[in-house]
Design brief:
single chain, eight-stranded antiparallel barrel, 8 strands
Length: 135
């Protein structure tokens, strides 16, 4: 009986400590998206609940407006008036078709894995990546 109780307490403590971070912890802060096959240089994100500034390795800043669907899903729309470089035709199309939908799919140590999706009237493009708290 004592062994069962000890195992139960250990399991309960593991479950409660694993739930310390939830998606709402990522609504504001400073983050890093590391370089990968799509993102050739690391990107730094500075986020408030309604806006995000993304800086790439060149110093360009992309300003986006954030619409939260729920704590784990949000939509990014490029703010053309504030972005420090010309907006590409593809980026304009992304805005025209409703922006980029980001879904947090898995919490990881110091960050999360995400799926970014753009739906061009049935032609769906998806990119998966990771985002980390900036130290």
């Amino acid at each position: 009986m004592r062994t069962v109780l000890t195992c139960f307490i250990l399991l309960l403590s593991l479950l409660t400590s694993a739930q310390d971070i939830d998606c709402s912890d990522f609504k504001t802060g400073v983050y890093i998206i590391p370089a990968d096959e799509t993102t050739k240089t690391p990107h730094t994100l500075t986020r408030t609940e309604k806006h995000q500034i993304e800086e790439d390795g060149t110093g360009d800043k992309i300003y986006t407006d954030i619409k939260w669907i729920n704590d784990c899903t949000y939509i990014l729309m490029i703010n053309e008036d504030l972005t420090t470089r010309p907006i590409s035709e593809t980026e304009r199309l992304v805005n025209d078709y409703g922006g980029v939908r980001i879904e947090i799919i898995k919490l990881i140590e110091n960050g999360y894995e995400f799926s970014a999706t753009v739906d061009f009237e049935g032609d769906v493009l998806t990119h998966k990546g990771r985002l980390y708290f900036k130290n």
